[in-house]
Structures are given as C-alpha cells and as structure tokens.
Amino acid sequence: MTKRVKKVCIVTGTRAEYGQLKLLCQKIVLSPKLGLQLVVTGSHLSERHGETFREIEADGFRISAKIDLAISDDSAVGIGMATGRSISGMSETLARLEPDVVLILGDRYELLGPAIASLLQRIPLAHLHGGELTEGAVDESIRHSLTKMAQLHFVATEVYRRRVIQMGESPESVFNVGGLGVDAIRSLRLIKKKHLENELKCKFNRRNLLVTFHPVTLGGDSSLKYLNEMLIALATLRDTSIFFTMPNADSGHVLMFNAIERFVGERPESRFSYKSLGQLRYFSLVQVVDGVVGNSSSGIHEVPSFKKPTINIGDRQMGRIRCDSIIDCKSDAISIVRAIEQMYSIQFQRRLSDVSNPYGEGGATDKITHLLESLSIRGTRKKFFDIEFSLSDCQGAAHP
Q1: 161-208, pLDDT tens digit by residue?
Q2: Single pTM value for the model
Q3: Pick from 9, 86, 111, 166: most CB atoms within 10 A?
Q4: Contact, 348 vs 331, CB < 8 A?
Q5: Same fold, 6-178+363-374 and 191-354
Q6: What CA–CA distance (Å, rounded) separates 175 from 358?
Q7: Per the CATH hierarchy, to which homologous superfamily does domain 191-354 belong?
Q8: What is the DSSP string of 245-294?
C-alpha cells in the first residue's frame, strides 16, 4: 500500500514572502513524504503590484487556489474589509483542500485569514519568522497573534526562539532554523551587470542605490510625509542611478506610488521604478548597487549576505536583530543625507568585509522540510508553557 503523503498548504500574499518560500515549495514538491498545496492571495493578484501570481506560475508551480482580497482601497477600512475577505476565502479553500498543515511566513494582515480559518477548522498551523520585532508597524501585533494561533514555529535566531517560548509556546514546538532569505540568495545564479541593464531597461551610473520604502502603518498619515523627506534627500545626489521597488499593499500605498512615479518622471535617465523585480532580478540588483535605502526587512534580513550597506529609515523595523552594515537614521531629509554620506565614507566601507549575517549561513529550507516530514502534527490543542518566576517578581510587577 502506498503511504499517504502529508499535505502542506502554503499561503503567500506578497512578492517578498514568496521569494523566501519559493525554495521551500520546490523542496516539498520533490519530497516523497509531502505534497504541496499553494494558495495565492493579496498583492499577487493586484494589477498595481504587477500581478505576481504569473511569476509563480512561470516557476512551474500549480496554484491550488486564488483568493482575491480586492485591495484597491488602501484605507484602514479597506484593509480591514480585505482581511474579512481573507478569512472567508480561506475558510472555503481549506474545507476543499483538507490539508494536514497550513504554513505561513511573516506578519502581514493577509495571513490573519489563513490563521483564523485554520484554527476554527482545527488544522495545525506552522508559522515562520515568529518572535521578531517591528515596533514601528502594525505587523508587530499581527506577528505575535499568528504565533499564538500556531502549533509549530520555525524561527530565524536563538533570540527569537526564546521570545516565542516566552509567549507561552512549548520549547518542543519552536525550532531555530535560520533565515529563509539566505537560502534564496545561495540558490540563485545572479544576473551580470551588463545583462541586468538590458533586462531592466536602465543605466547604471558612477553611484547606484536600490530603494524600497513601505507605508509606516503605525504612523498615522505620516507615510507620505516620510517618503517625501526621503525623495528630497535622494534629489540632492549627483551621478547616481536610483532604482525603486514599489511599496507593498498597506494602508496609504496608492499616494506613495504616485509620488515615486512623479519623482522618477522628473529624471527618467537616472531614476527607475518597478512594480515587481522578482527574486532573481532583485538580488542581482542588490549585488550591483552600492547600497539599499528604505525601511524594508530585506535590508536587514538579506542584504548583509552581500556585504552591502543598508540605510534603514525610521522605526518601521525597530527591534529587529541587525549587523554592522545597517545604518539607522531618522525620517527627515537631513538625517537621510547624512546617512548616505556615512555609507560612502572610507571608514564605513572598510567595515563591510567583516560583516556576518546574524540570520545564518543557509540551510533553513532543508531543516524545515525535514521537520515537516518527520513531525507528527495533529489537531490544534496546546498547553500554555509557563516560564517559572518567583512570587517577588510578580509582586514587583504589580507594585512598582
């Protein structure tokens, strides 16, 4: 009798998240013990964001379901309604697919639907990259909520493992596997500079910067203000080509799209924008440019593997573990200009050769695949794991 494979339902809602999950999807397809179900949602289905589900299909994956969240309304109310559509769509999809485990990565609102639907249907949930901090984004609360709904946790550092356990998760269910982005980088054969110019229809200059700036979701209406401050800073640069990857589908992204497009249109010979570069072209561009500017987690998780600097603007990524190639700066134009000057300084450039990525040297994909194959995951019942503390500690907290 043929042994039944374990059905793993992976849900992806953004280009960046899929880039990290792609190699894991390939490993699951090749595993004799696992079967892949791939659910695509969020900005993958958005024309404004490049309809990146087509890239997933081009990679050879069969998409088991598409759940359109209708994210054209980027107001807080619109995002809330999209989250409701995610819960509804995932509930129907999971009832049809009947997976053995649902797997999600990260901290975005698109993932609340899969998590809630899995919990209510008593399907075990595996969560990747839990325990991290992003104190300047609503993602912080979403990430920890996903942790509490999950039965299995694959984290990127030992600090994050301890933090997930601190949240009441059993140590036996929390595995430090390292960062998936590192595996993605090691698996690719990057495009050479000359060929990249042809593919991207761009021109490299004496200096080159890659920019990704996402909405600041806990900053009220300040996302556009902070973006404009960054654009003022970038406008002062000379002999510099600037490459923008467009913001993700958070509240306020439409006005940010428009501002970037206007900025690029003022100097089309040296400013370029892309709805979605795709993983290969994105990392190939990181390899070529002098550094990365913005507030994306990629600048902290992945860019250090290239020994390239990241200018991290504002507090969107506040709390993440980072290495010495990261320059943190405030969101005003003067601070950003000073950070760029620091990045190009001889003293800072000398540091880069000694940079080591704190998210590991690779291997996360194989570890996760092996654990999915070997672990017995049944049901959603779990006990809260209490970390021992003394009565005096408790009294001290209650009576400062």
Answers
A1: 999 999 999 999 999 999 888 888 888 899 999 999 999 999 999 999
A2: 0.83
A3: 111
A4: no
A5: yes
A6: 16
A7: Glycogen Phosphorylase B; (3.40.50.2000)
A8: EPP-SSTTHHHHHHHHHHHHHH-TTTEEEES--HHHHHHHHHHHSSEEEE
* All residues at 6 or more sequence positions from 41 whose CB lies less than 8 Å from its CB, including other chains: 11, 12, 13, 66, 67, 68, 69, 86, 89, 90, 110, 113
pLDDT category at 400 given cuts 50, 70, 90 is very low
DSSP-assigned letters across all residues of 178-224: --HHHHHHHH--PPPHHHHHHHHT----SEEEEEE----TTSTT-HH
- CA dist., res. 196 & res. 283, Å (int): 11
Cα distances (angstroms) measured from residue 81 to each of 39, 68, 110, 143, 254: 19, 12, 11, 19, 17
Q: How many CB atoms lie within 10 A of CB 200?
A: 17
**Size of the chain in residues:** 400
Domain ranges within the chain, ordered by starting residue = 6-178+363-374, 191-354
Q: Tokens for 109? A: 């609102």
What the block records as the tokens of 309 is: 């600097």
| pLDDT the model gives residue 393 | 46
SS3 233: helix
Report pLDDT for 371. Answer: 97
The strand pairing partners of 8, in sequence order, are 36, 101
- What's the rounded Cα separation, in Å, for the pair 334 and 313? 12
